[in-house]
Amino acid sequence: MEQSDHAPVVTTARKIVCCGHNYRAHILEMGREIPSYPTLFTKFADTLVGPYDPVEVPEWAGDLDWEAELAVVVGGSVRYADKARATAAIAGYTAANDVSVREWQYHTSQWLPGKAFDATTPLGPVLVTPDELDPSAGLEISCHVNGDTVQRADTSDLVFDPSDLIAYISQFTRLGPGDVVLTGTPAGVGAAEKPPRSLADGDVVEVRAAGIGLLRNEIRLLT
Predict the structure, then answer these.
(1) What is the pTM of this model?
(2) Cα–Cα distance, 72 to 48 (Å, whole number)
(3) What is the pLDDT of residues 126-146, one digit of tens each?
(4) 102: domain range?
């Protein structure tokens, strides 16, 4: 099968909940304090694309950035969960790239517009079950732009691990099979560079998650 034939690991997510500022090094590079509670935002199902699909946004959108992430797929209904029940509800793990339109993200203090452009969140390439993968052991996540390594960290740097996030989210909304939780991105985003760096038309962004695989997506700025 050709790479372009792969769909996102999840195609019918009812809820996609994302955590920002969840890697200690990333929090510090952005000049913020370690949070007491997860910083959450949502996406829509039509933000998802396959692991090898192009990411297409209008040229006027502005300041496109990469964010390599570990994603968690929920396998059972979970509400008011403690950490043990949250862990039991995890179907598996996959990789994501929370491609962010920074100009729109920073229009206000609410991030939604810059995080919810259609077809800007590659997800995949496979789902790995919890018996095969343990993020608490320190799963390496990296991002590469045109072959240049821009992010490299492991999940031991997370402030809130996948079970923490599912337990917290379940207190205010029910999560169900196929829902997705993005756990945050490590240090090394373009917005933190001096001067800030944005993705350009034709750039190729690769996200690698140890034990899961590779996302490879070409950036296309539409005129």
Answers:
(1) 0.95
(2) 14
(3) 999 999 999 999 999 999 999
(4) 3-222
